[in-house]
Protein backbone atom coordinates (compact mmCIF):
# COMPACT_ATOMS: atom_id res chain seq x y z
CA UNK A 1 0.00 0.00 0.00
CA UNK A 2 1.28 3.45 -0.94
CA UNK A 3 0.71 5.73 2.04
CA UNK A 4 0.28 9.42 1.44
CA UNK A 5 2.37 11.94 3.34
CA UNK A 6 0.40 13.56 6.14
CA UNK A 7 0.37 17.20 7.15
CA UNK A 8 1.69 18.36 10.50
CA UNK A 9 -1.83 18.75 11.89
CA UNK A 10 -2.89 15.28 10.77
CA UNK A 11 0.14 13.84 12.58
CA UNK A 12 -0.61 16.10 15.55
CA UNK A 13 -4.22 14.85 15.76
CA UNK A 14 -3.23 11.17 15.61
CA UNK A 15 -0.58 11.76 18.31
CA UNK A 16 -2.57 14.07 20.61
CA UNK A 17 -3.76 11.22 22.82
CA UNK A 18 -0.18 10.91 23.99
CA UNK A 19 -0.75 14.12 25.94
CA UNK A 20 -3.09 12.24 28.25
CA UNK A 21 -0.89 9.14 28.36
CA UNK A 22 2.02 11.32 29.43
CA UNK A 23 -0.10 13.04 32.07
CA UNK A 24 -0.58 9.57 33.51
CA UNK A 25 3.08 8.62 33.26
CA UNK A 26 4.36 11.97 34.58
CA UNK A 27 2.07 11.94 37.62
CA UNK A 28 3.01 8.32 38.24
CA UNK A 29 6.73 8.91 37.68
CA UNK A 30 6.92 12.15 39.63
CA UNK A 31 4.68 11.42 42.59
CA UNK A 32 4.13 7.68 43.23
CA UNK A 33 7.27 7.47 45.37
CA UNK A 34 6.02 10.48 47.31
CA UNK A 35 2.69 8.70 47.88
CA UNK A 36 4.52 5.57 49.00
CA UNK A 37 6.69 7.57 51.40
CA UNK A 38 3.66 9.41 52.78
CA UNK A 39 2.02 6.05 53.47
CA UNK A 40 5.10 4.91 55.39
CA UNK A 41 7.40 3.21 52.87
CA UNK A 42 11.13 3.23 53.56
CA UNK A 43 13.56 4.42 50.87
CA UNK A 44 14.93 0.92 50.36
CA UNK A 45 11.39 -0.44 49.79
CA UNK A 46 10.42 1.99 47.04
CA UNK A 47 11.97 0.28 43.97
CA UNK A 48 10.19 -3.01 44.78
CA UNK A 49 6.88 -1.21 45.28
CA UNK A 50 7.33 0.06 41.73
CA UNK A 51 7.58 -3.43 40.25
CA UNK A 52 3.91 -3.29 39.24
CA UNK A 53 4.70 -0.79 36.52
CA UNK A 54 7.20 -2.77 34.43
CA UNK A 55 5.67 -6.17 35.20
CA UNK A 56 2.29 -5.16 33.80
CA UNK A 57 4.03 -3.76 30.73
CA UNK A 58 5.84 -7.05 30.18
CA UNK A 59 2.53 -8.93 30.23
CA UNK A 60 0.17 -6.43 28.63
CA UNK A 61 2.11 -4.90 25.74
CA UNK A 62 2.76 -8.02 23.62
CA UNK A 63 -0.85 -9.14 24.17
CA UNK A 64 -2.28 -5.78 23.14
CA UNK A 65 0.08 -5.58 20.16
CA UNK A 66 -0.97 -9.05 19.00
CA UNK A 67 -4.68 -8.30 19.48
CA UNK A 68 -4.56 -4.92 17.77
CA UNK A 69 -2.82 -6.45 14.73
CA UNK A 70 -5.88 -8.72 14.44
CA UNK A 71 -8.54 -6.09 15.07
CA UNK A 72 -10.44 -4.22 12.39
CA UNK A 73 -13.66 -2.24 12.54
CA UNK A 74 -14.81 0.00 9.65
CA UNK A 75 -15.99 2.50 12.26
CA UNK A 76 -13.33 2.25 14.99
CA UNK A 77 -10.29 1.03 13.06
CA UNK A 78 -7.51 -1.17 14.41
CA UNK A 79 -5.73 0.69 17.20
CA UNK A 80 -8.34 3.21 18.40
CA UNK A 81 -10.52 0.76 20.40
CA UNK A 82 -7.51 0.06 22.61
CA UNK A 83 -6.82 3.78 23.07
CA UNK A 84 -10.33 4.25 24.41
CA UNK A 85 -10.48 1.20 26.72
CA UNK A 86 -7.09 2.08 28.20
CA UNK A 87 -8.11 5.71 28.72
CA UNK A 88 -11.25 4.85 30.66
CA UNK A 89 -9.41 2.44 32.98
CA UNK A 90 -6.42 4.80 33.41
CA UNK A 91 -8.63 7.77 34.31
CA UNK A 92 -10.34 5.69 37.00
CA UNK A 93 -7.00 4.59 38.50
CA UNK A 94 -5.46 8.09 38.31
CA UNK A 95 -8.36 9.60 40.21
CA UNK A 96 -8.32 7.07 43.05
CA UNK A 97 -4.60 6.30 43.60
CA UNK A 98 -3.88 9.36 45.83
CA UNK A 99 -6.90 8.43 47.97
CA UNK A 100 -5.17 5.19 49.03
CA UNK A 101 -5.13 4.71 52.79
CA UNK A 102 -2.49 1.95 52.87
CA UNK A 103 0.61 0.91 50.94
CA UNK A 104 -1.06 -2.21 49.51
CA UNK A 105 -3.87 -0.06 48.08
CA UNK A 106 -1.44 2.36 46.42
CA UNK A 107 0.59 -0.54 44.99
CA UNK A 108 -2.62 -2.16 43.72
CA UNK A 109 -3.76 1.03 42.01
CA UNK A 110 -0.32 1.31 40.43
CA UNK A 111 -0.87 -2.13 38.88
CA UNK A 112 -4.22 -1.02 37.44
CA UNK A 113 -2.85 2.33 36.31
CA UNK A 114 0.20 1.00 34.52
CA UNK A 115 -1.68 -1.87 32.85
CA UNK A 116 -4.30 0.59 31.61
CA UNK A 117 -1.75 3.11 30.33
CA UNK A 118 -0.03 0.30 28.43
CA UNK A 119 -3.31 -0.68 26.78
CA UNK A 120 -3.45 2.83 25.31
CA UNK A 121 0.25 3.44 24.72
CA UNK A 122 1.44 0.43 22.71
CA UNK A 123 -1.06 0.89 19.84
CA UNK A 124 -0.02 4.57 19.56
CA UNK A 125 3.50 3.50 18.59
CA UNK A 126 2.09 1.10 16.00
CA UNK A 127 -0.28 3.77 14.66
CA UNK A 128 2.63 5.96 13.50
CA UNK A 129 4.07 3.06 11.52
CA UNK A 130 0.59 2.18 10.21
CA UNK A 131 -0.22 5.64 8.96
CA UNK A 132 3.05 7.16 7.79
CA UNK A 133 5.36 6.35 4.89
CA UNK A 134 8.93 5.50 5.87
CA UNK A 135 10.15 8.97 4.96
CA UNK A 136 7.90 10.49 7.67
CA UNK A 137 8.48 7.97 10.45
CA UNK A 138 11.18 9.93 12.29
CA UNK A 139 9.00 13.02 11.87
CA UNK A 140 5.96 11.18 13.30
CA UNK A 141 7.75 9.81 16.34
CA UNK A 142 9.31 13.21 16.98
CA UNK A 143 5.85 14.88 16.92
CA UNK A 144 4.76 12.31 19.50
CA UNK A 145 7.79 13.27 21.56
CA UNK A 146 6.85 16.95 21.30
CA UNK A 147 3.40 16.19 22.73
CA UNK A 148 4.91 13.94 25.39
CA UNK A 149 7.20 16.80 26.43
CA UNK A 150 4.25 19.15 26.83
CA UNK A 151 2.40 16.57 28.91
CA UNK A 152 5.40 15.82 31.11
CA UNK A 153 6.03 19.47 31.93
CA UNK A 154 2.41 20.40 32.66
CA UNK A 155 1.59 17.27 34.67
CA UNK A 156 4.81 17.43 36.69
CA UNK A 157 3.97 20.97 37.78
CA UNK A 158 0.33 20.29 38.71
CA UNK A 159 0.80 19.67 42.48
CA UNK A 160 3.02 22.77 42.74
CA UNK A 161 0.52 24.82 40.70
CA UNK A 162 -2.59 23.82 42.64
CA UNK A 163 -0.65 24.41 45.85
CA UNK A 164 0.06 27.96 44.68
CA UNK A 165 -3.70 28.37 44.12
CA UNK A 166 -4.21 27.69 47.82
CA UNK A 167 -4.84 23.95 47.90
CA UNK A 168 -3.20 22.51 51.02
CA UNK A 169 0.11 20.61 51.13
CA UNK A 170 -0.53 19.73 54.76
CA UNK A 171 -2.18 16.47 55.78
CA UNK A 172 -2.50 14.09 58.67
CA UNK A 173 -0.01 11.26 59.16
CA UNK A 174 -0.39 8.68 56.38
CA UNK A 175 -2.69 10.89 54.30
CA UNK A 176 -1.76 12.23 50.84
CA UNK A 177 -2.14 16.05 50.68
CA UNK A 178 -5.11 17.54 48.86
CA UNK A 179 -2.80 19.26 46.35
CA UNK A 180 -1.74 15.84 45.05
CA UNK A 181 -5.33 14.54 44.99
CA UNK A 182 -6.49 17.52 42.93
CA UNK A 183 -3.54 17.17 40.54
CA UNK A 184 -4.32 13.50 39.90
CA UNK A 185 -8.01 14.30 39.33
CA UNK A 186 -7.04 16.88 36.69
CA UNK A 187 -4.73 14.30 35.12
CA UNK A 188 -7.58 11.77 34.91
CA UNK A 189 -9.78 14.28 33.08
CA UNK A 190 -7.03 15.31 30.62
CA UNK A 191 -6.14 11.65 29.93
CA UNK A 192 -9.67 10.76 28.84
CA UNK A 193 -10.28 13.99 26.91
CA UNK A 194 -7.08 13.83 24.86
CA UNK A 195 -7.62 10.18 23.91
CA UNK A 196 -11.16 11.00 22.79
CA UNK A 197 -9.75 13.79 20.61
CA UNK A 198 -7.47 11.36 18.76
CA UNK A 199 -10.19 8.70 18.46
CA UNK A 200 -12.60 11.12 16.78
CA UNK A 201 -10.12 13.02 14.57
CA UNK A 202 -8.11 10.12 13.17
CA UNK A 203 -8.91 7.44 10.61
CA UNK A 204 -6.95 4.25 9.92
CA UNK A 205 -6.05 2.28 6.84
CA UNK A 206 -7.84 -1.09 6.48
CA UNK A 207 -5.74 -4.26 6.12
CA UNK A 208 -4.15 -4.45 2.66
CA UNK A 209 -5.48 -7.95 1.97
CA UNK A 210 -8.78 -8.39 3.80
CA UNK A 211 -9.14 -12.08 2.92
CA UNK A 212 -5.68 -12.91 4.27
CA UNK A 213 -6.38 -10.76 7.33
CA UNK A 214 -9.60 -12.68 8.06
CA UNK A 215 -7.81 -16.02 7.64
CA UNK A 216 -5.10 -15.00 10.12
CA UNK A 217 -7.71 -13.63 12.49
CA UNK A 218 -9.64 -16.92 12.38
CA UNK A 219 -6.63 -18.97 13.47
CA UNK A 220 -7.06 -20.11 17.07
CA UNK A 221 -4.53 -20.65 19.84
CA UNK A 222 -1.79 -18.91 17.89
CA UNK A 223 -0.89 -16.20 20.37
CA UNK A 224 1.89 -17.98 22.28
CA UNK A 225 3.43 -19.61 19.16
CA UNK A 226 3.25 -16.26 17.34
CA UNK A 227 4.98 -14.38 20.16
CA UNK A 228 7.63 -17.10 20.56
CA UNK A 229 8.21 -17.20 16.80
CA UNK A 230 8.62 -13.43 16.57
CA UNK A 231 11.01 -13.37 19.54
CA UNK A 232 13.02 -16.22 18.04
CA UNK A 233 13.20 -14.47 14.66
CA UNK A 234 13.90 -11.04 16.06
CA UNK A 235 15.88 -8.89 13.58
CA UNK A 236 19.51 -8.33 14.56
CA UNK A 237 18.99 -4.55 14.64
CA UNK A 238 16.16 -5.04 17.15
CA UNK A 239 18.44 -7.07 19.42
CA UNK A 240 21.12 -4.38 19.30
CA UNK A 241 18.55 -1.69 20.03
CA UNK A 242 17.48 -3.85 22.96
CA UNK A 243 20.90 -3.40 24.58
CA UNK A 244 20.57 0.38 24.27
CA UNK A 245 17.02 0.27 25.61
CA UNK A 246 18.03 -1.85 28.61
CA UNK A 247 20.48 0.70 29.98
CA UNK A 248 18.31 3.69 28.98
CA UNK A 249 15.24 2.46 30.82
CA UNK A 250 17.22 1.20 33.81
CA UNK A 251 18.33 4.81 34.19
CA UNK A 252 14.88 6.35 33.91
CA UNK A 253 13.23 3.81 36.20
CA UNK A 254 15.91 4.69 38.75
CA UNK A 255 14.99 8.35 38.38
CA UNK A 256 11.22 7.80 38.65
CA UNK A 257 11.47 5.59 41.70
CA UNK A 258 14.33 7.30 43.56
CA UNK A 259 14.53 10.96 42.51
CA UNK A 260 12.06 12.14 45.14
CA UNK A 261 13.76 10.50 48.15
CA UNK A 262 17.22 11.29 46.76
CA UNK A 263 16.63 14.96 46.00
CA UNK A 264 14.44 15.85 48.97
CA UNK A 265 17.15 14.38 51.22
CA UNK A 266 20.39 15.42 49.49
CA UNK A 267 19.52 18.68 47.73
CA UNK A 268 16.59 20.13 49.73
CA UNK A 269 17.67 18.69 53.12
CA UNK A 270 14.03 17.80 53.91
CA UNK A 271 13.84 13.98 54.00
CA UNK A 272 10.52 12.27 54.68
CA UNK A 273 10.06 12.08 58.47
CA UNK A 274 9.85 8.58 59.94
CA UNK A 275 6.85 8.35 62.27
CA UNK A 276 8.54 5.77 64.53
CA UNK A 277 11.20 8.30 65.54
CA UNK A 278 8.58 10.70 66.97
CA UNK A 279 6.43 10.26 70.07
CA UNK A 280 3.02 11.34 68.81
CA UNK A 281 1.63 11.46 72.33
CA UNK A 282 3.81 14.48 73.09
CA UNK A 283 2.48 17.65 71.49
CA UNK A 284 5.92 19.06 70.75
CA UNK A 285 6.94 15.83 69.00
CA UNK A 286 3.70 15.77 67.01
CA UNK A 287 4.23 19.41 66.00
CA UNK A 288 7.84 18.67 64.96
CA UNK A 289 6.64 15.77 62.82
CA UNK A 290 4.01 17.95 61.14
CA UNK A 291 6.58 20.65 60.36
CA UNK A 292 9.01 18.10 58.90
CA UNK A 293 6.23 16.41 56.92
CA UNK A 294 4.99 19.70 55.44
CA UNK A 295 8.57 20.63 54.48
CA UNK A 296 8.93 17.23 52.80
CA UNK A 297 5.65 17.65 50.91
CA UNK A 298 6.59 21.14 49.71
CA UNK A 299 10.06 20.07 48.57
CA UNK A 300 8.41 17.09 46.85
CA UNK A 301 6.28 19.59 44.90
CA UNK A 302 9.51 21.27 43.81
CA UNK A 303 11.15 17.97 42.86
CA UNK A 304 8.12 17.23 40.67
CA UNK A 305 8.34 20.70 39.16
CA UNK A 306 12.05 20.26 38.39
CA UNK A 307 11.32 16.88 36.86
CA UNK A 308 8.86 18.64 34.58
CA UNK A 309 11.83 20.50 33.10
CA UNK A 310 13.04 17.33 31.41
CA UNK A 311 9.67 17.21 29.66
CA UNK A 312 10.08 20.83 28.60
CA UNK A 313 13.60 20.33 27.24
CA UNK A 314 12.56 17.12 25.48
CA UNK A 315 9.78 19.16 23.89
CA UNK A 316 12.28 21.77 22.67
CA UNK A 317 14.55 18.98 21.42
CA UNK A 318 11.62 17.39 19.60
CA UNK A 319 10.56 20.71 18.11
CA UNK A 320 14.01 21.21 16.60
CA UNK A 321 13.90 17.69 15.17
CA UNK A 322 10.40 18.26 13.78
CA UNK A 323 11.62 21.16 11.67
CA UNK A 324 14.83 19.38 10.71
CA UNK A 325 13.40 15.94 9.87
CA UNK A 326 10.56 17.43 7.84
CA UNK A 327 13.02 18.28 5.06
CA UNK A 328 16.43 16.78 5.85
CA UNK A 329 18.13 13.51 6.58
CA UNK A 330 19.37 12.78 10.11
CA UNK A 331 21.76 10.19 11.48
CA UNK A 332 19.53 8.58 14.09
CA UNK A 333 22.41 6.65 15.63
CA UNK A 334 24.55 9.68 16.46
CA UNK A 335 21.59 11.84 17.48
CA UNK A 336 20.65 9.15 19.99
CA UNK A 337 24.21 8.61 21.19
CA UNK A 338 24.98 12.24 22.00
CA UNK A 339 21.55 12.81 23.55
CA UNK A 340 22.07 9.90 25.95
CA UNK A 341 25.56 11.16 26.87
CA UNK A 342 24.12 14.55 27.81
CA UNK A 343 21.46 12.88 29.95
CA UNK A 344 24.10 10.84 31.75
CA UNK A 345 26.02 13.99 32.59
CA UNK A 346 22.79 15.59 33.87
CA UNK A 347 22.19 12.76 36.32
CA UNK A 348 25.76 12.65 37.61
CA UNK A 349 25.78 16.41 38.27
CA UNK A 350 23.07 16.05 40.91
CA UNK A 351 25.42 14.80 43.61
CA UNK A 352 27.67 17.84 43.36
CA UNK A 353 25.39 20.83 42.78
CA UNK A 354 25.63 23.57 45.46
CA UNK A 355 21.88 24.39 45.52
CA UNK A 356 18.59 23.17 44.10
CA UNK A 357 18.49 25.85 41.37
CA UNK A 358 21.16 23.88 39.50
CA UNK A 359 18.69 21.02 39.08
CA UNK A 360 17.36 23.02 36.13
CA UNK A 361 20.58 22.32 34.22
CA UNK A 362 20.53 18.64 35.17
CA UNK A 363 16.96 18.12 33.99
CA UNK A 364 17.48 20.09 30.78
CA UNK A 365 20.26 17.64 29.87
CA UNK A 366 18.11 14.67 30.93
CA UNK A 367 15.36 16.00 28.67
CA UNK A 368 17.60 15.67 25.61
CA UNK A 369 18.05 12.00 26.45
CA UNK A 370 14.33 11.52 27.10
CA UNK A 371 13.34 13.17 23.83
CA UNK A 372 15.66 10.89 21.92
CA UNK A 373 14.60 7.73 23.80
CA UNK A 374 10.99 8.37 22.85
CA UNK A 375 11.69 8.76 19.14
CA UNK A 376 14.99 7.51 17.75
CA UNK A 377 14.80 3.79 18.77
CA UNK A 378 11.28 3.50 17.36
CA UNK A 379 12.26 5.25 14.15
CA UNK A 380 15.24 2.91 13.78
CA UNK A 381 13.13 -0.17 14.56
CA UNK A 382 10.20 0.66 12.27
CA UNK A 383 12.53 0.78 9.27
CA UNK A 384 13.65 -2.82 9.81
CA UNK A 385 10.51 -4.89 10.54
CA UNK A 386 7.51 -6.35 8.66
CA UNK A 387 4.72 -3.71 8.56
CA UNK A 388 2.03 -6.41 8.94
CA UNK A 389 3.50 -7.34 12.33
CA UNK A 390 4.07 -3.81 13.54
CA UNK A 391 1.79 -4.11 16.58
CA UNK A 392 3.24 -7.34 17.94
CA UNK A 393 6.83 -6.25 17.12
CA UNK A 394 6.34 -2.98 18.98
CA UNK A 395 4.88 -4.95 21.88
CA UNK A 396 7.86 -7.32 21.95
CA UNK A 397 10.26 -4.38 21.61
CA UNK A 398 8.72 -2.87 24.70
CA UNK A 399 9.97 -5.93 26.60
CA UNK A 400 13.34 -4.19 26.33
CA UNK A 401 11.75 -1.35 28.28
CA UNK A 402 10.15 -3.37 31.06
CA UNK A 403 12.86 -6.02 31.67
CA UNK A 404 15.44 -3.42 32.82
CA UNK A 405 12.81 -1.83 35.04
CA UNK A 406 12.01 -5.18 36.65
CA UNK A 407 15.75 -5.77 37.10
CA UNK A 408 16.03 -2.39 38.80
CA UNK A 409 12.95 -2.95 40.97
CA UNK A 410 13.90 -6.35 42.38
CA UNK A 411 17.20 -5.10 43.71
CA UNK A 412 19.27 -3.73 40.86
CA UNK A 413 18.95 -0.10 41.93
CA UNK A 414 19.72 -0.80 45.60
CA UNK A 415 22.62 -3.13 44.82
CA UNK A 416 24.42 -0.90 42.33
CA UNK A 417 23.73 2.27 44.35
CA UNK A 418 25.27 0.71 47.45
CA UNK A 419 28.48 0.13 45.50
CA UNK A 420 28.85 3.92 45.48
CA UNK A 421 27.89 4.32 49.15
CA UNK A 422 24.81 4.44 51.39
CA UNK A 423 23.60 7.94 50.42
CA UNK A 424 20.31 7.90 48.50
CA UNK A 425 21.69 10.38 45.94
CA UNK A 426 23.95 7.61 44.63
CA UNK A 427 20.92 6.25 42.81
CA UNK A 428 21.20 9.25 40.49
CA UNK A 429 24.86 8.43 39.89
CA UNK A 430 23.76 4.94 38.85
CA UNK A 431 21.22 6.44 36.46
CA UNK A 432 23.92 8.61 34.89
CA UNK A 433 26.36 5.76 34.45
CA UNK A 434 23.63 3.60 32.91
CA UNK A 435 22.79 6.29 30.31
CA UNK A 436 26.45 6.64 29.36
CA UNK A 437 26.67 2.88 28.77
CA UNK A 438 23.48 3.11 26.67
CA UNK A 439 25.04 5.93 24.63
CA UNK A 440 28.18 3.96 23.85
CA UNK A 441 26.07 0.93 22.90
CA UNK A 442 24.87 2.86 19.84
CA UNK A 443 28.13 1.83 18.17
CA UNK A 444 26.49 -1.61 17.81
CA UNK A 445 23.98 -0.24 15.26
CA UNK A 446 25.25 -0.78 11.70
CA UNK A 447 22.07 -1.24 9.63
CA UNK A 448 22.03 1.70 7.18
CA UNK A 449 18.22 1.76 6.87
CA UNK A 450 17.91 2.01 10.63
CA UNK A 451 20.57 4.70 10.96
CA UNK A 452 19.24 7.14 8.39
CA UNK A 453 16.65 7.76 5.72
CA UNK A 454 16.26 10.02 2.73
CA UNK A 455 13.03 12.07 2.68
CA UNK A 456 10.99 11.80 -0.48
CA UNK A 457 11.42 14.71 -2.83
CA UNK A 458 8.38 16.78 -3.65
Give the secondary structure arrangement, pairings included.
Layout: H1 8-15, H2 17-38, H3 46-49, H4 52-69, H5 80-96, H6 103-131, H7 137-164, H8 178-201, H9 210-218, H10 223-232, H11 236-266, H12 283-325, H13 332-349, H14 359-373, H15 376-382, H16 390-397, H17 399-420, H18 426-440, H19 448-451
Subcellular location: Membrane
Keywords: Membrane, Transmembrane, Transmembrane helix, Transport
Transmembrane segments: 12-36, 48-68, 80-97, 103-121, 141-162, 182-200, 241-259, 303-322, 359-380, 392-413, 425-445
Q: Could you explain the architecture of this structure?
A:
This protein has 458 residues and is mainly alpha-helical. The protein has a single domain (8-202, 226-451), classed as Growth Hormone, Chain: A (Up-down Bundle), CATH 1.20.1250. It is built from 19 helices and no strands. The longest helix is centred in the middle third of the chain and has 43 residues, at 283-325. Mean pLDDT is 83; it is low at 454-458. This is MFS transporter.
Principal-axes shape call: globular
Structural class: mainly alpha
- Write the CATH fold name: Growth Hormone, Chain: A
Largest sheet, if any?
Answer: none
| Fraction of residues in β-strands | under 5%
Domain Major facilitator superfamily (MFS) profile: 237-458
Transmembrane segments: 12-36, 48-68, 80-97, 103-121, 141-162, 182-200, 241-259, 303-322, 359-380, 392-413, 425-445
Membrane topology: Multi-pass membrane protein
Keywords: Membrane, Transmembrane, Transmembrane helix, Transport
Amino acid sequence: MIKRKLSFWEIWNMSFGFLGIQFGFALQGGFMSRIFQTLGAGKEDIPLLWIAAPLTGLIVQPIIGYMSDRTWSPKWGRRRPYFLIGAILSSFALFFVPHSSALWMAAGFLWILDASINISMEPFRALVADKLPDSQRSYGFVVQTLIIGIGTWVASNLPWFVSKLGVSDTAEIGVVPMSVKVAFAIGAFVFLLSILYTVFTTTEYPPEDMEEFEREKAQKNQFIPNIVNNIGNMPLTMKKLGVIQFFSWFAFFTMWSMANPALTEHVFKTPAPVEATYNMNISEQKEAFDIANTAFQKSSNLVGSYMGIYGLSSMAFALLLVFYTAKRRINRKYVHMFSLLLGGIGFMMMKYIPSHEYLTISFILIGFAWGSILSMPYAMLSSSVDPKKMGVIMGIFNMFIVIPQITAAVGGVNFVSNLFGKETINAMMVAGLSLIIAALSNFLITNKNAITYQPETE
